[in-house]
Amino acid sequence: MDFLDPKKRRSYNIRLFIGFVLISIAIVLATTILALITAGYTINRKTGQVVQDSLVFINSQPVSSSIYINGKLSGTTNARFDLGAGNYSVSLSQSGYHQWSNKIALYGGQVEQLNYPFLFPTSPTKTATLAVASQPAISSTTPDRHWMLVSIPGQVGSFNIIDITNPKTPITSITIPTSVLASPSGSNTLTAIEWSTDNQHLLLKDDYSGGSQFIMLDRTSPTDSFNINKTFSGASFTNIKLANQSYNKLYLFDQASGSISLGDVGAKTVTPVISNAIAFWPYGSNQIVYTTRDSKSTNLVDANLWNSNGHTYTLRTLPVGTSYQLNMASFNGKLYVVVGSSTSKYAYVYLNPQDDFSAHPDKQPLPYTLLVVTGALENVTFSNSARFISLQSGSQFAIYDILYDTHYRYDTQLAFAPTQLATWMDGNRLNAVIDGKLTIWDFDGTNMIPFTLAEPAYLPAYNQSYNAVYTINQITGQWQITRNSLIDGKS
Fold this sequence. Notes:
Blueprint: H1 6-38, E1 41-43, E2 50-58, E3 66-69, E4 72-76, E5 79-84, E6 86-93, E7 100-106, E8 111-114, E9 126-132, E10 139-141, E11 147-151, E12 158-163, E13 172-175, E14 188-195, E15 201-208, E16 211-218, E17 226-227, H2 228-231, E18 239-243, E19 246-254, E20 259-264, E21 269-274, E22 277-283, E23 287-293, E24 300-307, E25 312-319, E26 324-331, E27 334-341, E28 346-351, H3 353-359, E29 369-372, E30 379-382, E31 388-393, E32 396-401, E33 406-411, E34 423-424, E35 429-434, E36 437-442, E37 449-453, E38 461-462, E39 468-475, E40 478-485
Parallel strand pairs: 2-8
Antiparallel strand pairs: 1-2, 2-5, 3-4, 3-6, 6-7, 9-40, 10-11, 11-12, 12-13, 14-15, 15-16, 16-17, 18-19, 19-20, 20-21, 22-23, 23-24, 24-25, 26-27, 27-28, 28-29, 30-31, 31-32, 32-33, 34-35, 35-36, 36-37, 38-39, 39-40
């Protein structure tokens, strides 16, 4: 029997071992090839070289827009493409809309998602929604972009309520009880400050001949509106910000003393939080970034971070300015804190600074990145999705893309009025009313569209689906609220 022959058994074992080795090598090679294919590696049939492709997704509003890659028609949105490393020009077009175009650089193996392009109609359908004889003092939109509140001229504390999600909904009106106003018999001027995220309560400032007070308007039940100064009658404050964007928890700031207190509307209690503040910006219910005078130099201020655990950390010193740009937001579970002074060209961005303080309590944290402009800092904002941080100085913008760790700097060349600020249309676009037109552009400064007539005193009101934007402007002696369709040929 062959298996009893030692020589044949050894020869058999050797062949068996070699077979196992070859199979193992084949499995490893197959796995490697599959992994490389999954990572986008292919063989260029012309050169025989191994190249790594990138996966590119392209979508747009409206859908079914034609996609041109390097000038060649390549499909319609929504679509995906496997493209090799290199520079590409991408443009989207559809009849009746402005063309969208941009350039992308692919390095191989990356996933690029162009899911934000927005094509604006060249001749939007305009529908007159409401006309009034004189200029409204207030126009404000709820955070969920459902309701537009416009003050009724000549009737202090009265507002028209417009459903901007459904143009067929009848316009209604509400009135704040006269007992809530600071001076019912005097001259009152109301200013909208901030909405609560319940989309029901709006913080108003009421300036009158004897001073100013604050009112919390209840949109759905105006009789439940209340005077904040009367609620906290023993407290002194000149400014208010909502804590965690809640109407019943308020940060009360007294400019003269620099004190910041937390007011509890339900309990009618006031709890001291911070002293000697110059400016502040709250985030959530437990963090505040603020500035105080530096103890060592009259030319400097300290930028600090406070949390509700009672800890205060100094981020850095800033040059004394007429204003300070402070902001905070979370993106992908990480906290980004931005500080800057109007007399500096830098805004400093910190990533999870409390982690640095915990690891090195005796050292100030290093900035994660910088935003730089050549003029005075005027405004620091996060986009609606918090992916982008924008720094504005007149017509100049510095943008940081958190997702791709990319910086953009550009000058829009737009004629911004002094102190006029751009705002975010959505998570990817900025807008401002320039020379009587609502002008919109992408975060990187491209695809700028002067879209429709508007008055710069009012922010544009986009509805929830972004298929319309409401603007206010003067037409033939009247002030008119106009619904401008963002879908060609539809109202």
